[in-house]
Design a protein that fits this description.
single chain, 173 residues, alpha+beta, Alpha-Beta Plaits, four-stranded mixed β-sheet, two-stranded antiparallel sheet, 6 helices
Amino acid sequence: MTHVILMDIARCINCRSCEVACEREHAGFGNMTVQVFDERYAVPMSCRHCQDGPCIRVCPTNALHRETNDAVTIAPMKCIGCQLCMIACPFGIIKFDYLNKIARKCDLCVARTMQGLQPACVSTCSARALVYGEFDELKQTVERDRSRLLVVRSSGETGTLVRVPIVWSDPYR
């Protein structure tokens, strides 16, 4: 049973509370950002925890590894700061911590989720734009709304689900 974060872009209000919660949970190092696109959509960006993660495959020291069935994490003591994982990440999520000279990314708040809690970003999201749950259940939720939503998700059977409202704009206006 794989757990993922569902990102409902139609609900995100760009309050950035998810960023603050992530920084608070990780001692000042935020592993999530909110990007604004087309001045309309605020998109929470975090690791997709790909099933067959390219970041895991390129790491020469095995610092990136699958901690649980759900989360890909970085072992900071093994990371040599080569930044190959940053190049390999198809979503551009992994960031380099220049102070400590290691890579950083979302760890799905593995310490919290192992205690049965939600990731900090999800528990803080007042707009309910972020939902943490079992992949198949969230997939069914998204498919029910498919008639009015465009669904985007990472390749493979796991990863972050993203619901994007279908907005058609005339390019000639």
